[in-house]
Amino acid sequence: MTTSICRRSSSDLVTSCTGLATSRGPCPFTGREGGVSAGEHAGLNLAQHVGDDERAVVRNRELLDAELGVPVVFVDQTHSTDVHVLPAAGPAPVVSADALVTDRGDVALAIMVADCLPVLLSDPVSGTIAAAHAGRAGLLAGVLERTIEAMTQLGARPADLTASIGPSICGACYEVPEPMRAEAAQQLPTTWAETSWGTPALDLRAGAIEILGAAGIPRSALETDHPCTLEDERFYSYRRQARTGRFAGVLRRA
Ligand SMILES: [Zn+2]
User: Fold this and answer.
1) Are 167 and 29 in contact (CB under 8 A)?
2) How far is the CA of 29 from the centre of ligand 1 (A)?
3) CA 168–ligand 1 middle distance (angstroms)
4) What are the pLDDT digits (tens) for 32-71?
């Protein structure tokens, strides 16, 4: 049984940062490129409820379904630590959660972001996959630990997992108030950071790497080489523009 986080693709939708991909191949993150949304949401905005034309979002999601070859499952994300394990078969209803887990091969999983971390996990041995939304709140509250726990209940072992932390705001850009930095660093020391202009910041990617490592995923199985969303306009960034779209980390079993 095999799974793959990074898959070859014939279109531009899930390979829009291919040029920056690693030895694992094209990366499974969408960008702005390829969609029908206009104006502030221009491009492949996948989120409803961010002020975009709903018909455009439906069309963008259809494009993604066609690209993946299976229905793409989304969740209503709320910065929680709720993990949704898909039913073993049949339709996957949209629920409120911030992580999705399955061992099914007939659907793909999507997590939407615009600066937060899209974290994709795959266990090639058990065939279990997961997608998690890890912003500051979710990361500190344990969304990644809970996601891995749900995967193990489907037979995955942390030592077998590979993980990809996608395009997200970097530690040199994610400015926060000093008390917020102190509180985060007390729990996750690696999140302590400074902006490139010398003010308090958080490095959420470093925090995620710390958590995934502590959970037992080998460092060599972590793929983190992706652009900063605030600095790279191929991605939506909430910090750059409060009214904007969402791109996604998307994966399916190979
Ligand atoms: Zn940055």
Assistant:
1) yes
2) 17
3) 8
4) 988 999 999 999 999 998 999 999 999 999 999 988 888 9
Task: Give me the residue spans of the domains in the chain.
Answer: 18-169+221-252
State yes or no: pLDDT of 92 exceeds 50.
Answer: yes
Architecture of domain 18-169+221-252: 4-Layer Sandwich (3.60)
Q: Can you tell me the distance from the alpha carbon of 162 to that of 24, in angstroms, rounded to the nearest whole number?
A: 11
- How far does the centroid of ligand 1 lie from the alpha carbon of residue 195, in Å? 9
Q: How far is the CA of 229 from the centre of ligand 1 (A)?
A: 7
Predicted local distance difference test score (pLDDT) of residue 124? 87
* Contact (Cβ atoms closer than 8 angstroms) between residue 133 and residue 99: yes
Cα 39 to ligand 1 centroid, rounded to whole Å = 24
Token couple for 159: 């030592």
Q: How many CA atoms lie less than 13 Å away from 84 in the CB half-sphere?
A: 23
- Where are the alpha helices (H) located in the chain, listed in sequence order? 54-68, 136-141, 143-153, 178-187, 204-214
Tell how far the Cα of 54 is from the centroid of ligand 1, in angstroms: 30
Cα 32 to middle of ligand 1, angstroms: 18
